[in-house]
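[job 0417] fold request received: RND family efflux transporter MFP subunit
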Amino acid sequence: MKAIALSLCSILFLAGCEKDSAESEPIRPVLSVIVQPQVQASLGRFAGTIQARYESTLGFRVAGRIARRWVDVGREVKPGDTLASLDPADQRNQLRAAEGDLAKVQAQWINAQAEARRQQQLFDSGVGAQAQLDIAQTNLKTTGASLEQARAAVVQARDQLGYSELKTDHAAVVTNWQAEAGQTVSAGQPVVTLARPDIKEAVIDLPTYLAEQLSTDLKFVVASQLDATINTSATLRVLEPQADAATRTRRARLTLASTPEAFYLGTAISVTLTSAVSPRSELPATALLESEGQPQVWVVDPQQNTVATREVKVLERTPYSVVLSAGVQAGERVVTAGVNSLKPGQKVKVDEEDPR
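[job 0417] inference complete; emitting C-alpha cells
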C-alpha cells in the first residue's frame, strides 16, 4: 500500500508539472499582414507627355525671304492672326505689272468696241464691207478675252501679295519654328508647327514585347509627374504599327477620359498600365512555410489569438514576395515572420508589418 501511494503521488506531481509547463508556455510575438486580394495586375509604368491630338505644319504659298516672325513658341493664336511675313517687294511688283497690263487691255477693249460699232454702222448704211465688219467683231471678242485674262492676272497678283503673310485659320498654340527671319524659303516649305489645344492626349513609348500583347481590358492611369494626385484614366486610341529603329519602341496615343487643367501641352506624365486578372494575393516571401513539399502559411485566429497552418497554391514566387491564387481569403491575417518556430494552436501576439 505504501508503494502504491508513492506511485500515485509521483503521477500527480508529474501531471502538475506538465500543466504548469503548458500554462507557462510564452506567447510568441509575430509579424503579420492582412490579406488583400488583387484583381488588377500592373504591367509597368512609363514616362510620356501631354500632346495635342491635332497638329499642323504651315508654310508660305509663295517663295520669298522671311521679313519677320510675329509670334514665338508657346504663344496662343486666334483665327486670322499673322504668324510671319515675307518681304513683299516681288509680289508688289507683280501686282503693279498685272495692273498695268489690265489698263492696256482695257484701252484696247474700248478701241475694239468703237471700231466694231463703226463698222456695224457702215455696214447697215450699205457702204461698209462684210469682211471689215467680221474683222472688227473678231477683234472685239479677242480683246474681251484678253481683258478677262488681265483681270484674272490682277486678282492672282493680289492673292500672291496676300500670301506673303502667313496666317492661321484656327485657334492654336505655336509649338515649333522651322525657319528664321532673313531666311529664304520656297513655296510650301515647312515654317511653323501649330497644335490645337482643345483636344489633348497622352503619348508614351512602349517596349515592342508589351505593345504586341496589349488587350482590350487593359487600363491606363495617366498622372502628372509633379503631382500624382492629378490623374485620369485613358484608353488606347492608336498604336503605331512600326517600332522606332533606334529605341525599338512603339508610340501609343491615349485618349484621356478627362483633361485636368494642369495637363498643359508638354506636361511630363507617368502612365501606369494594369490588366484584369483572376483574384490573387501577394505576401512577403517570409510568410511561406514548406511542409513535406506543400506550401503553407500560418493564419491567425483573431478571436483566440492562435495560429493554424493553411495549405496554399503559389502562382508566382520572387526572392521578396509570393503570389497566391488560392488558400487565403480577404481580410485574414497571415504571419510573415517566425513561421518556423510556431506550433498549431499556439497563442501569439500580433504586430503588423510596416506598410512601407
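[job 0417] notes: Confidence is low (pLDDT under 50) at residues 1-6, 17-22. The helical segments are 2-23, 89-125, 130-162, 208-211.
[job 0417] exit 0
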